[in-house]
Amino acid sequence: MKNVFVRVCFLVLIVAMVLSACSPAATKKIVIVTDATWPPFESVDEATKEIVGFDIDLIKAIAAKENLDIEIQNVQWDPLLAGIAACQYDAAISAMTITDERKKQFAFSNPYFAAGQVVTVQIGNSDIAGKDSLSGKTVGAQLGTTGEIEGNKIAGATVKPYDDIALAFQDLMNGQVDAVIADNPLAIGYVGKNSDKLKTVGQVFTDEYYGIAVCKTNTDLLAKLNDGLAKVEAEGTIDTLTAKWLAGK
Question: What is the three-class DSSP state of 9?
Answer without folding.
Answer: helix
